[in-house]
Amino acid sequence: MLPLSVQLHQLFTGFTFTFLLQAALSTLALAVAGCSCGLLVGLVVACLRRSRTLYLLPLRMVLVVFVELMRRIPFLVTLFLTLFVLQALGTNLSFFSIALIAVCLIATAYLAEIFRAGFDSVPQPQIDAAKTLNFSPLQILFTVMLPQSWKVVLPPAFSFMVSFIKDTALASQLGVVELTFAGKILITRGYSAFLIYGLVMLVYFALSWPLSLLGAWLEQCTQRAFNPTADAMPAGTTPITPALPNPALLDRR
Amino acid sequence: MPHLDINNLSCSYGSQPVLDGLSLSVEKGQVVSLIGGSGSGKSTLLRVIMGLTQPTGGSISIGEQAVDYGSAASVRAAREKIAIVFQQYNLFNNMSVLRNVMVTPTRVQKRDERKVRDEAMTLLSKVGLKDKANVYPAQLSGGQQQRVAISRALALQPQILLLDEITSALDPELVGEVLDSVRQLARDGMTMLLVSHEMRFVREVSDQVAMMDKGRIVEMAPPEQLFTQPQQPRTQAFMQKVAWH
User: Fold this and answer.
1) Where would you find the membrane-spanning parts of this chain (chain A) (predicted)?
2) Complex prediction ipTM
């Protein structure tokens, strides 16, 4: 093994650094692609699952099977399944593209389920009211359901996405050189495992920390959104303003 | 020519009939109240009129226009003429009071925002909630929320207003303020079909009262007659049991 000073010097110069940076970018690409695709397609899947139109019934059944299946298969198995199915279909995609597809499928299934739970949290009578007011399905979605769903959707969605960044490490099993795999390669080249994994840990942290912060900030926004007094009230109580506020009572607060 | 004409209407949940050949008509400017035990189909009738529950038979016409509940366009047209206020207010919790009242005229009916705002403020001041315009529903009492819900329904400028047990979820102290708003509407000549358990109020405000049982109207008469000299045994039994308040 090389002396630590030499290792450090080599690590931050030239080829090795680029190698690690590229690997980190691969991880980032997998995570960003998975999360964006998951958020967008997951939202659409959740909406389609809610529709009650008869001619969409076959599609709804396919989506239910897709979501329930994907959430029950290990990530690794999904990766290999995607690989073998795509190979059987005669496609000639790179391992990275295959990993990308698998990652999108998994994130879509999980986030669709998170959106479904969010939609279910909106009271049905409010949706009935919107229907009687002639809201179109899209207006119901964007003006009534989504704004009220965020409170329920954001915490599990961000917790999923943060752990998802780490799960992309499994793409290494397909030979995709992402962060974890890159670390392994460097160690076989004589770098200290402690040094490399320490660095890998820091990069993973740097990738997921801003996402956690964003999640926490958005959660705060949604908590406050429709209920400015929520901070002052204990959880589970509904603030009620008296019809005629009594100044004496207000003083005592 | 009745304003709202319901003819031989049937509706069932599975094999359970909820409305069983019900006929009823409401003239323009009239207030018709539906009374009866729970499960008699009162709320279902209002849900069917609004197109939230599919009828299994019979017909409904508004003005001279028959509503085809199989056609989305026909149901939309009906909903432009009829508005409903629910027992649980069902305000949109993510919108301020003013937005709740304005959202349908501006977003669905595409009317001019400034004009709608003025109308909304007028409606809110009529129910005494002008100063709550920028507050969110969660900060209001049940009675205040229900008065906002009435304003939201009226902002559509409906020809007919349906009220589904609008005081049942309220604290007894808050019932009065909501009923006052309805009384005002009745004086203004609004055509209303309402379901209520507030017998005194029904007696005072209605032109016609219909007693419902097992998905049918067993007796319909002006309030004085129905409350003092009910003809049908079912109505007589009901009148003996209801609480007078």
Assistant:
1) 20-48, 69-89, 95-112, 194-218
2) 0.91
